[in-house]
Every structure is written in structure tokens, then in C-alpha cells.
Amino acid sequence: MMSMPYLAQEDQQQTLEWLHGGTFSVLLDGQATDGQLTVGRFRVGKGEAPPFHLHTREDEVFMLIAGTALLWAGEEEMELGEGGIVYLPRNLPHGYRITSDTADLLMITTPAGIEGMFRHAGRDITTARPDGFAISPEKLAEAADLHGQIIVGPPR
After folding, report:
1. Is the pLDDT reported for residue 68 higher than 80?
2. What is the dihedral sign for C-alpha 44, 89, 113, 111?
3. How many whole angstroms separate alpha carbon 120 and alpha carbon 147?
4. Please, are residues 50 and 39 in contact by the beta-carbon 8 Å criterion?
5. CA-CA distance, 29 to 141, in Å (whole number)?
6. 155 and 49 in contact (C-beta within 8 Å)?
7. Mean pLDDT over all residues of the chain?
8. DSSP readout, 115-145?
9. Apex CA 9: angle with CA 84 and CA 118, to 5°?
10. Peptide bond into 111 cis (omega under 30)
11. What sign results for the dihedral spanned by CA atoms 45, 51, 54, 57?
């Protein structure tokens, strides 16, 4: 099958409510890229930090468009500044914590598929928000498990 170009304007991109009141927008998913890659964008606040985790199925690149963060890759701790980019190969435990008031992160994973985890645990912002909506640790763990993510430990 030949891959085809795919264009998605901002109003065509699915945005999900994610951890700690942040959002994750699915810019390109596996359907759009013939399974080659997923591109997503996080808009999050200070202190946002996913559990320390690793990906068994995909390599990850993320770029800090705006803001600052601490990043852990394996046992190494690094500071990620605005415009900084990092490559995280599959099976390398990693995590981050946002240190600026807000942050805008671009995430690219290859191959595609991780968007399923975000869609499983997150809430599409165009749907009615249930009272007290939150992504429980149990729901996050279930979503991670279904999509080849392994939670190694708590956020750092």
C-alpha cells in the first residue's frame, strides 16, 4: 500500500483531557500515517509528571516547544530547556517533571499506536465532562498495559 499525505488542521485534531488538568492532542495517529508514527502535543502545567515508565513497542522523541522540565532517562537526570529535544529508545525507563508554570511539548513515537493509550484513559474534550473526572492510577495502568507501556515507578 502506498502511503498518502495527510493534513490535519488544528480543529481536526482530537484533544483529550489528560493528567493533572493538562491536555494531549493527537496531531497524527496511526490511521493518518499508515502505522508509521504518532505525533502528539501536550499542554500541561507546573509539576505535571507521568509515572516513570518505558515503552516496549516504540521509540520516542519529544521536544519542549515552551517551558522547562527535569528529565530522567535511565538513572540520568537532565534539564530540558525551551527548544530542547530528546530521543528515548524503546525499553529505556524515563520520565519528566515540568518546572515552568506551563509547558508545551511535542511528542513523536515510531511506530504508531501509543495514541490508543491516551484515548483509553483520557477524555475527549468535545464530550460532556463527568463530575469529578480524573484519570485514576488504575485506569492509567490498564491503558498502559493494553498498549505496551510498562510503569516502572511513581513520578519523579
Report:
1. yes
2. positive
3. 10
4. no
5. 21
6. yes
7. 95
8. HHHHHHHSEETTSPPPTT----HHHHHHHHH
9. 60
10. yes
11. negative
Q: Rounded to 10 degrees, what is the CA torsion of 90, 57, 152, 82?
A: 50
Q: In terms of Cα–Cα distance, which of 62, 8, 63, 18 is closest to 44?
A: 18
Q: Which residues contact 14 (CB under 8 A, 6 or more apart)?
A: 25, 26, 119, 124
Kindly report whether the global pTM for this prediction surpasses the value 0.85.
Answer: yes
| pLDDT(122) > 90 | yes
The pLDDT of 130-136, averaged and rounded, is 92
What are the respective helix, strand and coil percentages of the chain, to the nearest 5? 15, 40, 45
Instruction: Tell me, rounded to whole angstroms, the distance of Cα 113 from its chain centroid.
Output: 12
Grid coordinates belonging to 123: 477524555
When pLDDT is cut at 50, 70 and 90, the band that residue 2 belongs to is low
